[in-house]
Amino acid sequence: MLSFTGKRLLGLGHRVSAAAVAGRGYHERVVDHYDNPRNVGSFDKTDPSVGTGLVGAPACGDVMKLQIRVDEDSGKIVDACFKTFGCGSAIASSSVATEWVKGKKMEEVLSIKNTEIAKHLSLPPVKLHCSMLAEDAIKAAVKDYEAKKAKHSGNADQVEKA
Amino acid sequence: MVQGSFVTELRARESPLARTRALSRFASCCRCSPCSVAGRQFLENNCLNVFLIMRRSKNCSLFSLLRTSLKELVYESEAKRGLWLSASSLVHEDLHLHPRIPSDLLINTRSFSIPVKRFDCASNYGGPGHHDFTEFRVLNRFLCSSEAGSGELPKCWNCGGDAVSPGPFLACGLCGSVQPVDQSIDFFQIFGLERTYEIKDGNLEGKYKDWQKKLHPDLVHSKSEKEKMFAAEQSARVIDAYRTLSKPLLRAIYLLKLEDVHVDEEKTITDPDLLAEMMDIREAVEEANDSHALNQIQTQVEEKFEKWSRFFEQVFKMHDFDNAITATERMRYYDRALEEITKKL
């Protein structure tokens, strides 16, 4: 179904097979995010304009990494990428999250709710925690960026004093 | 389910199987317990009637489901006095009609075989002032699940024989009839093991096969509907027990469950070290191209799993449940990674 390169980028493994899609019905949007991965990748963690959110779900052992690149002057998120190891719903949720945060201000992004993501992807009740994970990932990324900024400006002050 | 007509519908059904199906739908409705006023009203109005029908149909497992729902309703508020009186009058009715409770009229699980003299004491308690209290106590005993120290051995529903110890009472030792599921018997008891994490030489497979020789549904295909249902449930439970106990991770989680430790599965994990480590492992698995590399990673992850498994054993013994939960989380992550490796190999 996917080319090998595609699989590698997504970090998926063999989670969703063609049979599963046809029979049990992942929503077409979920399948779309799986087939056409967008924003998969990594930014440099040490870059001061990058915030990294790393979250996990205890129930299923999923790991989700969501990174945002913020423009310092405007406070807007200019780019985002993700890497998720988990089920199709988790991957789709994080993919949607990266799409939605692009071009928004950080405060706005904090108001993205997991219910919106779940509705957009028509997630069944058993997969709602995947959307929750995506929401938490966004918040964690923003928090990480803020912490970095505070530390960075703290260091700058110290340098100036010296 | 249309309110009110449900009971009529139920009484109209002749076939026990149809009645069982209708009753199990009702029971699951009770369990979902809609909080709406209408929903509650429906449960109250029908619960007792259904209770009565159930008692006569002698369907144990559904009976216990309904009993739980009724118990919840009753314990909810003082205002449920009417419910108490009705339910307890059912019990009195049983006893007045049948002073010696014969085994084929009352369901013989530990919880329900109540000797007559205890009730005589209760009802002799006295006048109208004590009425509520008596009723409540009567109902309380009727509804409470198996009382420890009541000193009664469970009896076989078929031949009335006593449970022969040792071993859990899943099938009668005398007549071979499969018994209804008793939820108070935990998985460890089914396999005759201590409630510990480490099980050496448990011979799980052997015991599992022995049980299935007595409980498998195929063996009861010529017996009554009731016994077929018991066999289906009992053998399913033994399969569950076998699966849970054979895998260390599931065993650990089950042990925590038995200790009533609540694991919040909804809470997101943000531990950076664990997550970064898992990210690295999963990425490595993705990038590994040959089985040699995969096997290497597999060995490493297995080692980590072992380490945390031993840690779990230690902290669990000391009842340090917070650390025990952390250990199970870690084990679950490693287990997932190992699953992925196995898939790839």
From TrEMBL, chain A:
GO biological process: iron-sulfur cluster assembly
Keywords: 2Fe-2S, Iron, Iron-sulfur, Metal-binding, Mitochondrion, Transit peptide
Gene Ontology CC: mitochondrial matrix
All copies of domain NIF system FeS cluster assembly NifU N-terminal, residue ranges: 26-151
Matching SUPFAM superfamilies: SufE/NifU
MF GO annotations: 2 iron, 2 sulfur cluster binding; iron ion binding
Main location (coarse class): mitochondrion
One Pfam family it belongs to: NifU_N
Entry's localization field: Mitochondrion matrix
Record family assignment: Belongs to the NifU family.
PANTHER family named in the record: IRON-SULFUR CLUSTER ASSEMBLY ENZYME NIFU HOMOLOG
NCBIfam families in UniProt: iscU
Function per UniProt: Scaffold protein for the de novo synthesis of iron-sulfur (Fe-S) clusters within mitochondria, which is required for maturation of both mitochondrial and cytoplasmic [2Fe-2S] and [4Fe-4S] proteins.
UniProt protein name: Iron-sulfur cluster assembly protein
UniProt source species: Ensete ventricosum (Abyssinian banana)
TrEMBL record, chain B:
MF GO annotations: ATPase activator activity; protein-folding chaperone binding
Record's subcellular location: Cytoplasm; Mitochondrion
Keyword Manganese tagged: no
Segments forming domain J: 186-258
GO terms under cellular component: endoplasmic reticulum; mitochondrion
Gene Ontology terms: biological process: [2Fe-2S] cluster assembly; protein complex oligomerization
PROSITE patterns: DNAJ_2
PANTHER family documented for this protein: IRON-SULFUR CLUSTER CO-CHAPERONE PROTEIN HSCB (PTHR14021)
Protein name: J domain-containing protein
Species, as recorded: Ensete ventricosum (Abyssinian banana)
Phylogenetic classification of the source organism: Eukaryota, Viridiplantae, Streptophyta, Embryophyta, Tracheophyta
